[in-house]
Fold these 4 entries.
Entry 1:
Amino acid sequence: MTKGVKMTNQITFYDPTMRDGEQTIGVNFTIDEKIKLAQALEKYGVSAIEAGFPAASKKDFDAVVEISKVVHTAKVVGLARLVRQDIDAVVAATQQAKHPMIHVFIATSPVHRTYKLHMSPSEIIEKVISDIRYTKTMMSEIIFSPEDATRTEPEFLARVIQAAIESGATMINIPDTVGYATPYEYGELFEYLREHVRDFDQVTWATHTHNDLGMANANALAGIMHGATEIQGTINGIGERAGNVDIIEAAAAIYVRRQTFAKQTAIILEQSKHISDIVAQATHMPVAKNKPIMGRNAFAHESGIHQDGYLKNPETYEILRPEMVGTQASLPLGKLSGSHAVMNQLLSLGYHISRQDMVTILPIFKRIAEKTSTVSDQQMQDMMTMIQTNKMM
Ligand code: KIV
Ligand code: ZN
């Protein structure tokens, strides 16, 4: 643990699937889908649900209102630019939430200041101070994000954040908005901020990592090694462009490598498949077969060597029991499968065969497997009927 960092080993998860996740091209949750997802997320163990951007549309506003009514323990958060109308909309939409929170943001990097906001660094600091003070008169829990933090001059970033904390922000989120940072840099940025933000220990720090270079999970984990105690991420990693860090992957990594991280989470990992399915269905975005943890192939072992090892002891090729994340392992039979797995499957189909019988069966199986992607149970049964009819063993 780094010197001066708050001593907690509890990592919380903040879920913006319904806001950042909904920024995925083609994704448009209905209010009913959002309510169902919010309830599932709460059971999954996330500590905050960013339910929408109330000023963006009536539908987003209504979704935040409805979610505020049904969520009991998690914070319900609405997103707002540092614009009074946005802030007022979040305050109104979260009125019925048991634990309301507002997420305010403004971009801080040179490219955003120059081309998007047309604001100078001092104008940004003034805006942060005046609008967070304004927000604080109505909301006690405020999360502040300097958008594109990882491409912002660190010295300016520290000044903006200090101003946000002094004005009333209770949590600081460090967005790697365009997925540009490397894990080393992202961790170092937290170190820099710890050294240069006077009130670092007065607030909670969150990671917010995008996956443009495939480093979202590594970056989030680097953040928690250097002072962050909350990870913002989405289910199935959906989000703008290449998406956000996938909460399921981050929580699984913290669990599998618990000795390395010395951290724990409140996530009920066994519900991962259930929540992943809810999001896949509502977004019409099936999970890629080779996606870590939730992909159909994540716990599938096809080659003979792997199947043999797995059947002797699953730990040979598994770092996490699939049941831990609500799914199962599979041993699909294909051209690379070996005698051990083929025999195992025939026994489970009810055939009484010996190792000696496999001398006859395996070459026939291989001929069938070479002509197909995976060999189904029906094909296995047809093969056995043919072998028995022809009295081949
Ligand atoms: O990626 C980002 O910068 C965001 C902000 C709104 C926090 O999603
Ligand atoms: Zn984002």
Note: The first helix runs from residue 31 to 44.
Entry 2:
Amino acid sequence: SLPQVVIVGRPNVGKSSLFNWLAGRRLAIVDNVAGVTRDRMTYLMQWRDRYFEIVDTGGIGINDVDDLTDEIDQQINIAIDSADLILFVVDTRDGILPLDQEVARRLRHVNKPIVLVANKTDESHMDHEADQFYQLGRGMLVPVSTLQNRNKDDLLNVIADRL
Ligand code: GDP
Ligand code: MG
């Protein structure tokens, strides 16, 4: 089966926005290449010569997860079970919040490649603010903005290089 690129992060950092942005569509549409399973949304991607599936684990409203740490646990479990690469999404406008540290803590012992995606880095002068997220973990950090369409090719190159 295809490599799985699993998107994790606390609510509101822009996981679904990232999914739709990478998929190149405004809304993830359910068709032959996009699918909703019970707990995740997937989309088949091609970049350069690589094919992979991106997976948005963030509550799609089918499971009624009211406890935020339960939702994070569920995301991490999907990542542990099925990810070949994990996109750990954070929010440069908010900076590091306790729930980000919780996600980082749960990922610490997950032995899979992780890319930190600093979303909402809407302007280039904010790039240095994204550097704070290095303290959340190991691996690459890519500042992006789904809103301003910043650094999509950079992120896709980083993903493709690590699959
Ligand atoms: P999720 O809960 O992690 O799936 O987050 P969503 O994708 O639902 O996005 C949460 C909010 O962040 C929405 O209001 C988005 O419009 C906003 N958002 C997403 N990406 C960006 C971005 O690059 N810049 C800014 N300023 N806002 C964004
Ligand atoms: Mg979402």
Note: The pocket of magnesium ion (ligand 2) is lined by residues 15-16, 58 (CB under 6 Å).
Entry 3:
Amino acid sequence: MSLIEINQLSKLYGFGDAATIALDEVDFVVEKNDFIAIMGPSGSGKTTLMNIIGLLDTPSHGDYKLGAKVTPKLSSRQRAKIRRDTVGFVFQSFNLLPSLTVLENVALPLAYKGLTPVRRLKRASEMLERVGLADREYFYPTQLSGGQLQRAAIARALINNPNLIIADEPTGNLDSESSRLVMELLSEIHKAGNTVLMVTHNPALTRYASRVVYMHDGAIIHDEQSKIGDIPNILQRSMYFVSKKTVEDDAAGVSALMKTIPGDLDDRKLAKKKRQTKRKPAKSKKVKKS
Ligand code: ADP
């Protein structure tokens, strides 16, 4: 049985003429132990899809099965329980509570499990050791670097032994060395048997994924299995290179990608850009005259 089965799933925000179609009849199946990199321009529906998969939001139409559960039929209380036991979230902005120590932050999701405080802290401590932060247990989030904060957030996401990790741009706020450490940690978690869904703008990170999905305008426009360590075919076709070393390389890779995917829609955008560029000199003349 697949871990996730999504059929003809749509999400609309607003009503009537003001409605935005964030997801447009999406079909999506995730197998256990997939590591999927989800890419696509801003506004393409990636976060909306992750929020629905993670039971933080509900679809407007369509079916969604997580394991054996048909989620639209569940009450919000049942959804909260499944979310707690099944899904671990990692966000770009870490979302640790500043008034708690790192250890307390990691132990927090266990508060609903009926464990004694001592057992909670012991489990959190073991998890922090697993992510390489044993010596930071009693620090507060403000005393940690971005990479350390994200590793703590991953420890918190793992504390309930979820079978699905949803990471929304987990390296978006990190320098390249911290990004590498965080990606290696996610990769280890994947190798240990977990399923990982990761939204990213960075094509270089698709190397860690076993499958790459591209979204555009609320739809999945490309879905490709990829060998871990390899660059997916679509990136090889559409990019001049993928970063090996620097943030600048990454940026160049991203812009190369955004120029080429998806073909005809972006051709229209490029044509629009050209029209705007042509208009610019006329504007600057006007300024000079006045
Ligand atoms: P992405 O994560 O790819 O940037 P999102 O899923 O955030 O895309 O957004 C998809 C579309 O849905 C966008 O047009 C966005 O403006 C719209 N959208 C997302 N959340 C809301 C909301 N709460 N209210 C209204 N529109 C929203």
Note: Residues 13, 20, 22, 40, 42-48 surround adenosine-5'-diphosphate (CB under 6 Å).
Entry 4:
Amino acid sequence: RAHLDAMAATRSLNAFVVETPEIALARADEADARRVRGEALGPMDGVPVAIKDLFCTEGVATTASSKILDGFVPPYESTVSANLKAAGAVMLGKTSMDEFAMGSANITAATGPVRNPWGPEGDAFLVPGGSSGGSAAAVAARSAIAATGSDTGGSIRQPAAYCGLVGLKPTYGRCSRWGMIAFASSLDQAGPITRTVEDAAIMLGTMAGHDPKDSTSADIAVPDFRAAVNRGVKGLKIGIPKEYRVDGMPAEIEKLWADGVAMLKAAGAEIVDISLPHTKYALATYYIVAPAEASSNLARYDGVRYGHRTKANVSSLAEMYEKTRAEGFGREVKRRIMIGTYVLSAGYYDAYYLKAQQVRTRIAADFAAAFDQVDAILAPTAPSAAFRFGEKMDDPVQMYLTDVFTVPASLAGLPAISVPGGIGESGLPLGLQVIGRSFDEETVLAVGRAIE
Ligand code: GLN
């Protein structure tokens, strides 16, 4: 009830697209009944969480913040939200996101922008980051204890950084994608947004696991993530990639990174300079691969099977498709569909899509070579703190540049966490990122805990 009150008191943030108080109270009662009966409670029993609107929830409207899914009520539950439910977590509601998870500021939701609780009220508000901005705003505003996010190129880590939270993108395949609305299927991965590293470990332990319904879900045992949190970093080798020292990096980000290095050294880790030579191609590669997959995934929204259908008079099926899609998709989604269709088209496939896939392999190989030398990599999460609503909005490339430090780990499918690294000169929270070996979330969590 306290969390429902907090949710109501912070509605001006616009973090939730659907509130589900009846479900929350019913699940809380169920957890409490288990407690009264003396049953052993799990770590998520009765814990109020928010669910990003990208996860299908049975009987509860799910739109991925897009007008084209207006009125869609899934008849099934995503595996990740079902796992949380089975563990006793209490769903408070569905959180806003950039439309179809395409964005870095949570400004493209059909229900309007989300405000970062750290920023000023009024017109000069700060963005919470994106695309999981609603989840991050809800946790930062203390309405939810934790929230689910999804990360395709940074959408868990970057909003966590902008809102002073922990955000963990697991290894690709660690969490099932079944029932998650697809953006770019070879990159999409679910993960937790929480206040602490320990909470992230607990929540991931519940969300993760093999799922026969997702052929890319890994059949690998889920370790005790919570036990790994306090392992310490003594004797670990931590890599500092020189290519992440980009031109024009603000002084507060340089300082954040140096402070992180100092903390790890003091805790007994060894710092090693490393090189990830293909880093400079990562952003361009991502912005070919992700739109290509999106253009294919979004072909299913045709006005027949889900959500919105045009009410205009049409004289053919093709016209119905065209009008429905023109009305239902926002500008950024249309831009991605056009880029994706272009790079996949017969005349340009070799020059763009195939090339991007080749570079993606090189980027993954860079990481593999680095992990022969080090146990984890430390870098900033984003090149700046949260920015104001209105900034970067007219220039998609400026917006895409906010993802420069998060997309490489996504392209390589590696686990990465963003942890609060303190408050910068701007008075805003900054995030430090730890990237680990494939399926080694345990080291990522232990290093994250050491700098949190
Ligand atoms: N900001 C990136 C994009 O717009 C990443 C989004 C995400 O991870 N879903 O594609």
Note: The chain is about 35% helix and 15% strand.
